């Protein structure tokens, strides 16, 4: 699974200049946007869309998320009228994590704005700490975690973004609960995500790292990579990416060392020997009931379509036609490790392509098989 976060500094301009298409070419499963500056966002085929605009000043602030994976729940803001009216936070709940995208106030120009920024982070921290699932928090935090995140750190000491209180906040959460995903994979300097709008600053890489993925430590072993898309133009910020180990069937994020998906049970780790053995032609006796796992026995191109949304997977998946021909004249019970919400769509697609129609009133497959083998149920009763 790939998640990309980007402060676009105005989505309308990003769209008009073709930069949105460029970032979509990176094929994110989830795209989190900050500083959207729009009450409306366009729909994108294959994505669910969520927009949290600023209601008091529609041309400022705001966050949005595009997701190929349908979330379990959505929440806009964190129950604070002052900040919620600016559309600064969206939370999406998924199967085994909560995703937060955040656009923090800058706190520059006055003491009152700085105090307001502190209030925002107090509220945000309290809100995120209530999560009952591991957290992935991304966005423009308008802070730098350490001196390595600034080109000239001496120039920003005791300024908004690198006040002692802000550094303490990073030190506390990174030592106790969270991992700075980018730093897990890259510990070098000169990796920045924002540059001042001054001539030559971006070309000379005189910038700061204001944009982050902060991930719960309990979720650390799901991470496979995190990086900055330095060359992406269109905003004064560069997008950042996070890649996680996810199930090719149900999209659930799993630990890197999981052999099987903890949710749907499909095998996650395959050896070359296992892969080659599946390409051999199957000899199936005509008088046997065949038990097949739809997740990987009938679908022959699952690896190529693993990152597509579910509906696109169903439309584009190719079935092993030789295997289908072999089983057409047999009595077949199809079993799947997918959750019912997904498996019933797969079964519907199987019906369209093969003519099989499962009887959902059947007892568990093992019981049905035994009854057929014992002669208590005729094979025809297993299928309409």
Descriptive report:
Residues 274-278, 284-297 and 359-384 have low confidence and may be disordered. Helices cover 25% and strands 18% of the residues. The strands form 3 sheets. It has a 6-stranded mixed beta sheet with strand order 3-4-2-1-12-11. A 6-stranded mixed beta sheet has the order 5-6-7-8-10-9. It has helices at 11-16, 19-24, 81-84, 111-129, 164-176, 181-185, 272-277, 310-316, 321-327, 340-354, 365-373, and strands at 2-7, 30-34, 48-52, 63-67, 73-76, 89-93, 98-103, 135-140, 178-180, 211-216, 223-228, 240-244, 290-293, 332-335. The chain has 384 residues and is of the alpha+beta class. Strand 7, helix 4 and strand 8 (135-140) form a beta-alpha-beta unit.
Question: What does this entry show, briefly?
Answer:
By secondary structure, the protein is of the alpha+beta class.
